[in-house]
Amino acid sequence: MTDITPLIPRQPVPTLSAHLVGGGTWSSETAKGDPFTMVVFYRGLHCPICKTYLGSLEKQLEAFTGKGIEVVALSTDDQARAEQAKADWNLPNLTVGYGVSLEQARSWGLYVSSGIGKTSIGVEEPAQFAEPGLFFFRPDKTLYFASTQTMPFARPRFEDILPALDFVIARNYPARGEVATLTHSAAAE
């Protein structure tokens, strides 16, 4: 397994592809979001917080797509688990993908956990799975925003992201956190 390397804003995102519930595939290379594509990594069928989180996204999906944002929710789950999540969690309009490899998840800076048995909803955790992450990238495939978690809770709220996007889009606000190499600072001495 590879080391976790954070993605750097304004730099290209790693190539990512996944099968889609209902057929077809999604790929970062062919993403069509303009001004952004939003990738929501969720833990999988076993996660009750993911159910609530993606349910919130489903309710606000039209607000995102109305801004030209392509939205996809991805996990390391297999096809059967992803299909069950989409159906059981009532996500008829959300594009849900599955089969992201743990290596692909790591290449996006995601943390990986080992399964610890059945969750509070009685679903067995996979042997290993990716923890949550939220990413926005531009049509040129450069990262705009990233948020990763080591736990299922404390994720960015979609209700907070929508007005922030209005600000960002209206002002063509640049991606921040882009400094990859630090320069010497006298203030640090």
Descriptive report:
With 189 residues, the chain is of the alpha+beta class. It contains four helices and nine strands. The termini are far apart.
Number of strands: 9
Biggest sheet details? 7 strands, mixed
Bin the helical content.
Answer: 25-40%
Class inferred from helices and paired strands: alpha+beta
Draw up the topology in text.
Blueprint: E1 17-20, E2 25-27, E3 37-41, H1 48-65, E4 70-74, H2 79-88, E5 96-98, H3 102-107, E6 112-114, E7 128-130, E8 133-137, E9 143-148, H4 158-171
Parallel strand pairs: 3-4, 4-5
Antiparallel strand pairs: 1-2, 1-5, 3-8, 6-7, 8-9
Q: Any descriptors?
A:
single chain, 189 residues, alpha+beta, seven-stranded mixed β-sheet, globular
Short description:
With 189 residues, the chain is an alpha+beta fold.
